[in-house]
Amino acid sequence: MNPFVRPRPVEHPALRVIGFHHAGGSAAVYHPLIHQFPPEWDLLLLDLPGRGKRHAQTPVEDMNQLVARAVQDVRPWLGGQRQRDHDSSAPPEAEVRGSLKVPVALFGHSLGAILASEVGRAMQAAGTPPVWVGVSGRVPPDTPAGRRSLCELGDTALLAELSAMGGMPDRFAELPEFRERFLQLVRADLRAVDSYRPASGRAPLACPLTVFGGTADTWAPPEMMAGWSRETHGEFRQRYFPGGHFYFLGTAFAGFARSLVAEVTEVTEVGRLASAADRIPSRRSPRAGDGKANVVNTAAG
To answer: Using CA atoms, how far apart are residues 83 and 181, in angstroms rounded to an integer?
Structure first.
């Protein structure tokens, strides 16, 4: 079973973008990206165990195991490392052939930000490094969260907290059975997040890294995000949008997607060559005390 959603397969892409979703979410959250992507870009969206294409699988509650699973899922798409004969999650043979030497960019939000950065490190260690990593809605790995673990909350309090953050499924209260399943899933994901302990002394990424976030996100405040610069030796940039933890959902999604395309285009050679998208206007200024960083405040829309 191929765990990826591929909204618009591109046979010979100039770039492949792999997306990792948030806790309690699924690959579906990024599906609208395809409407803003250049035609030469391929989009792969990973469903973690317990949802979407993997709804029958047991959710993983340990981050090390979850990273290992994601690395295993991504590996067949890197440099034609064929595993079809031994791994039922590998893509079909024709798709593997199409993955040969295709540059890969990674993006993840919240829990997905951890996966994007750690999968990127694993790719780098294997000799197939990503050309870009984008992280969103997550404080740097070496920064304490500074807030009570959501796993400690009862069901009512947890749902209230998640609702305040945004991003809850539509008509959630009208579906009791779905409510119970969602609580089990999101608690498993949150336990995985709480278990995350970055390995000391691990090598930074070599590629450009961009932080995305909401200006009013209390779980990943903009003033705490500069620490992500320690996670890469490449160019480090930041882009912020009006809103909270799920700043990109709803009517803001198209603008966010255009911004993501513009970011990859600006900082990678493959993006500059492949993208036919117009660059969005932005205000850019260096972050005080960090000469590596560019900070972009993007208007809504």
So the answer is: 32
Q: Tokens for 43?
A: 């989009």
User: Cα(137)–Cα(128) distance, rounded to whole angstroms?
Assistant: 26
Residue with the two structure tokens 């036919």: 276
Q: What is the pTM (predicted TM-score) of this model?
A: 0.86
What is the SS3 assignment for 96? helix
In percent, the amount of the chain with pLDDT more than 90 equals 65
Of 239, 247, 244, residue with least CA distance to 280: 239
Q: How confident is the model at residue 85 (pLDDT cuts 50, 70, 90)?
A: very low
CB count within 10 Å of CB 96 equals 18
Q: ∠ CA 274-230-269 to the nearest 5 degrees? A: 15
Fold of 4-146+205-297: Rossmann fold (3.40.50)
- Return the structure tokens found at 114: 């951890």
Compute how many other C-beta atoms are within 10 angstroms of the C-beta atom of residue 71: 18
What distance in Å separates the CA atoms of residue 141 and residue 113, rounded to the nearest whole number? 10
Residue 179 three-state SS: helix
